[in-house]
Amino acid sequence: AGVMAEEYARRAGESAEVARALAEMELPRSAGGALPAGGAGAVLSLADRFDLVTGMFVIGAAPTGSSDPFGVRRAAIGLLNVLRSTPALAGIHVNEALRAAADRFAAQGVEVPAERLTEAAELITRRYEQQLTDAGHEHRLVQAVLVRADRPAHGDRTLATLERHVGTEAFDGLTAAFQRVVRILPPDGAEAGADAVDRSPLTAPAELRLAESAQAVREALTGREDDLAALIEVSAPLVVAINAFFDDVLVMDPDPAVRAARLALLDDVARLARTIIDWRAL
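Given the sequence above, the corresponding structure tokens read:
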């Protein structure tokens, strides 16, 4: 299809750039196949594959364990390869691209249930996980970066940072501290309304130091919120403050107001790095 599209475009008087982009829309043709060399071709390749994946889930033709007649898995692998290999497109979010494809269907009168998009995103995440595993990366590190599957190129960069720092004193201390925080919170963070919790009960020195350290890290990470290397670089005082907090303070205080304030403070800390990696996986 790409070969013929390029030929027709050239004969119709289109520019060489347009003709080549139409050819590259069909790339990659296989899991390890050649990728689009140009930005326009890469965008068309992504659009085609996000359209196919979304459409197949909408009509109930999602792949099963034994059947994938429409090549949905192949399309998912192809779009991952393009996203991971094209720096100019690294900022594209998988979930946003799926929603854009769904909006196109909606404009034609075909409603796309939200759960179908969730299922499609999960398929892409599982393909990304398989790619990292097949490449020989350590299982727990792969699990830790799957929270970045929505932007796989960023996931790759985070995994590379993990592999450079895991086992070092600084990173192991940071991991232990954040695990103390996330393990005392519900799986998805503090309870709803944490931002509105009254913080006035937080008066103990350890509480105030933790709040100050968290704010300092937040300011230091401005513009680099998703950068694991930056977090490691500025986190030493925060690690000390987290450990002192747990040593000096009873988080689950009998007083509901105090307990809620302390959990809300810990949620503030967790939010500094919740989207960078899954600390529970390490």
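The mean pLDDT is 92. Try to locate this feature in the token string yourself.
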